[in-house]
Amino acid sequence: MTEESLRRADELLTELVELVETARTLPMSSSCVVPREHVLDLLDGLRETLPPEMDEARRVIANRDTLLHDANASANTTRERAAAEAEALTSDAKQRAERLVHEAEVRAYDIVEEGKTEHARLVSATGVHQAAARAAAELREAAEAYDAAVREQADGLSASLHGEADRYAADVRADAERYADKLARDAEDYADRTLAELAGTLQRAAATAEQGRAALAQRRAAAAAPADGPDERRGAAGRQDRPSDRRDSEQRDSERRDPDKTAISA
Questions:
Q1: 11-25, 46-60, 69-83: lowest mean pLDDT where?
Q2: Mean pLDDT over residues 180-189, rounded?
Q3: By residue range, what is the domain housing residue 116?
Q4: What b/e sequence results for 229-247 when a residue is b if at least 16 CB atoms lie within 10 Å of its CB, and e otherwise?
Q5: Are 162 and 90 within 8 A, CB to CB?
Q6: Is 183 in the same domain as 233?
Q7: Alpha-helix runs per DSSP H in the chain
Q8: 128 or 202: which carries more pLDDT confidence?
Q9: Residue 102 located in a structural domain
């Protein structure tokens, strides 16, 4: 808030105080009549002198929930995309594993069929038959071992992809939450600083208004003092035998000596 704005706010407050103090008092009441349009104009002018940072602080506070919602939405979108990619990788790995298993099964079947054919051809020879049986058994065991190895590799790849996807989603969410928390703290700090500056400005303006009132009271007291001349003292001495007149005179003297009380009660 610039010095010119402070000076303008001080002038408006002083004028508003003087307007209230000099307003016409209603009969039989402590209320007073003030011009509404003039007072509203003064209040509008005072509002215009307030710093624009107040509106900025209100906008930051109002957008806090929107920023947090956007950060959470971004984190959710990233997590869903990572999960979809992990699911696609897992599905592709399963398809590759199934294709390898199928190829192994087909190869094992072909080998077995070849062994059977060879066995049928050499069935007349005992030694050849036994050799063929052993070869077929070895081929079957090799095919089964290959199938088991392929399945184990596919399961390991799927588990690894799932773990990487979960870690990636957790990291993205943690970054989004940290960013949202930082935005919230920055907005709160900015609003606190702006409100503190405004409170100091209002306190200085109130102190200036009180000084103006005190100066106005002193001017009124100085203006009322010369009215207590010799003629009035003689008139008061001539009415000393009338109690009611004496009380009225004492009350008027009291109001002249302390005009601030009269203004405050009004």
A1: 46-60
A2: 84
A3: 58-193
A4: eeeeeeebeeeeeeeeeee
A5: yes
A6: no
A7: 3-21, 36-49, 53-62, 64-121, 126-224, 230-238, 243-257, 259-265
A8: 202
A9: yes
Calculate mean pLDDT across residues 19-37. Answer: 84
In one letter, which amino acid is 168? Y
Please state at what angle helix 126-224 crosses helix 3-21, rounded to 10 degrees.
50
> Which amino acid is present at 129?
H
What's the pLDDT score for residue 261? 44
Q: 20-49 burial string, b = 16+ CB within 10 Å, else e?
A: ebeeeeeeeeeeeeeeeeeeeebeeebeeb
Q: What is the domain count for the chain? A: 2
CA atoms within 13 A on the CB side of 26: 7
CA distance 142 to 149: 10
**pLDDT top residue among 17 and 228:** 17
Four-residue CA torsion sign, 67, 69, 73, 76:
positive
In the predicted structure, residue 49 carries a pLDDT above the cut 60: yes
Residue with tokens 């060879």: 118
Residues 131, 189 within the same domain: yes
The single-letter DSSP state of residue 227 is G
